[in-house]
Amino acid sequence: MRLSKFRLHHSLRLKILVTFVACLFITSLLQISIDFVTQGFRKIPYTSYESSKNRINGKLALIESELEKAHVTNEITALLNKHSEQDRLILYLTDLEGKVIFHSDGVKESKIDLFQIFYEQKKIITNPDPGSMYTTVMPVKYTEQKLFLVISGPLEAEVGYTYDDSKIVNLLLFFGLFTLTFYLFTARKMKQFQLLNNGVEKIAQGKLSVRLPVKSEDELGTLTRNINDMAGQLEEKMEKERLAEKTKIELITNISHDLRTPLTSIIGYLMLLQENIHKDDSSSPYVQSALNKSNQLKKLIDDLFEYTRLTSKQVFLEKQNIDMVSMLKQMIIEFSPLAETYDIRIVSELPEQKIMLHVDAGTIVRAVDNLLMNALKFSVKPGAIRIDLRKEVSGIVLCVANEGTGMTKEQEERLFERFYKGDESRNGHIMPSGSGLGLSIAQSIVQLHGGDIWLHRTGHYYQFFISIPYDSSNGEDHVGGN
């Protein structure tokens, strides 16, 4: 492996590993230091007699092994005296009844009660006192004779200190120190993650000019650079798209403007020609057809001009406080004669009270008129168009509903696309073909007012909804009296 490629600052994984090991090491040092500093507070004094007991028990085993080598009485007595003098012990060799057979010097008893010894030793072991005689008994065999070796010696107290070490407390302390150390060690890197996250959120919100600071040469730094590159490319692409859209809008606007004047003249000439032509003249149908086509073309150009104006973000809304109820009543009066021509009734359910809304009256009328014309075009004849208006907490909701002919899911999803036309067979060729911009224009107008427009379909029953919020900057949106 080439060491030049194995650089620590280029690997986030190695940084995490080294950080983890360093935190373990530092945590261990901290815990050792804390343990050393707090020893004085955790010191617990104790008194122990274990050394005396172990010394006597050890002497018992030693004498047992030496007894096997003693063959005469003098040797046994000498053995017992030797150990008695060395450790200030009292030694007996008794039979099974407790009769003393051999003993060390200074022993006067000729018989001892072994059961009494066992009973007293239980109390001494449970609650020993300095100077108490600790006695232990072991069965031994001497010249095929079963005996008991009894050793008795004073208990000597040993005073010392122990330390209160709770494993649970130590474990919790270790994990607490490790967590704190790991947090401190990774705080800088986590701040880098937070900055990255905040930057990505801003980019996701459309602020493509945001650039993230590159603060490391590891994988996180590489990711940051890639995000910056992506944001730059997106910004460049969006700028090109905006420029192309602006150019397209300007082109459509200019063409529409240039076509309107000559087209108006052509329509005027055709109308003049139609007035002066004889009814029995064979050219009359062609003149009428040319006039109809010219009017359709004029409507298309007008709609196209209006749509580009609304979507160019340069339109200025002349907002004023209007009574939505009165406006809709007036529109129904004006629209009813046209609807009756196609055997369509207008049914409305409007509030009795005024509903004041701060909007651009002209554009709102255009949006509602487009919905009415769309409903008229695709309604089942004879039929009805229903207009409802209701007030909600945040604004008003207008509904234009009608019973229409069938529609596919794809057609429903594309209704608000510009230049999209539904199946013309749905209107039975009764009404002239539209421009495919009516619903798009209505949508743009509603969105300019901060509202929303949508379709709810149940079978062949279509409900177009428009919701427009109250203008919070104007305090006159309210429900008034009659």
UniProtKB/TrEMBL annotation:
One Gene Ontology cellular component annotation held by this UniProt entry: plasma membrane
Positions of the HAMP domain: 187-239
Membrane-crossing segments per the record: 12-34, 168-186
Reaction(s) catalysed (UniProt annotation): ATP + protein L-histidine = ADP + protein N-phospho-L-histidine
Major location (coarse): membrane
Record-linked Pfam families: HAMP (PF00672), HATPase_c (PF02518), HisKA (PF00512)
Membrane topology, record value: Multi-pass membrane protein
Keywords, alphabetical: ATP-binding, Cell membrane, Kinase, Membrane, Nucleotide-binding, Phosphoprotein, Transferase, Transmembrane, Transmembrane helix, Two-component regulatory system
Location of this chain's protein in the cell: Cell membrane
Gene3D superfamilies registered for this protein in UniProt: 1.10.287.130, 6.10.340.10, Histidine kinase-like ATPase, C-terminal domain (3.30.565.10)
PROSITE patterns: HAMP, HIS_KIN
InterPro entries from the UniProt entry: HAMP_dom (IPR003660), HATPase_C_sf (IPR036890), HATPase_dom (IPR003594), His_kinase_dom (IPR005467), HisK_dim/P_dom (IPR003661), HisK_dim/P_sf (IPR036097), HssS/ArlS-like (IPR050398), Sig_transdc_His_kin-like_C (IPR004358)
Domain Histidine kinase, chain residue ranges per copy: 254-472
GO molecular function: ATP binding; phosphorelay sensor kinase activity
Enzyme Commission numbers on file: 2.7.13.3
PANTHER family in the cross-refs: HISTIDINE KINASE (PTHR45528:SF8), SENSOR HISTIDINE KINASE CPXA (PTHR45528)
Name used for this protein in its record: histidine kinase
Organism: Paenibacillus foliorum
Lineage of the organism: Bacteria, Bacillati, Bacillota, Bacilli, Bacillales
